[in-house]
Amino acid sequence: MVAGEGIGDMAKHFMNKYGILCMKISSKYQLRRLCRATGARPLVKLEPVHPEDMGFCKRVFLRELGLDKVTVFEQDPKDDSQIATIILRGSTTSVLNDVER
């Protein structure tokens, strides 16, 4: 489960008990990208979840890139994904900003 806001302690307790991954993504942009990549539909109201609302991801894991830890959502290469990630590295922030443009 991915949430845009905080997750309550009781909800965390039951997710931990039943082995459900939960994480918070505070950026609306990143939340939309994740929904698009997994085929999920963001739920903006508290309503029952239907099977067509749920997305799918083959594997989720933590990876260390440089000094940062990132969460990787990996799709099956056979799936027709609409999003790809390109990781840029540079000596300075200004060089990376120039490459990004």
UniProtKB/TrEMBL annotation:
Q: Which domain of life is it from?
A: Eukaryota
Per the record's keyword annotation, is Chaperone included, yes or no?
yes
| Keyword list, A-Z | ATP-binding, Chaperone, Nucleotide-binding
What GO terms are given for molecular function? ATP binding; ATP-dependent protein folding chaperone
Keyword Chaperone carried by entry: yes
Q: What is this protein called?
A: Uncharacterized protein
Please report the organism this UniProt entry assigns to the protein.
Answer: Coccolithus braarudii
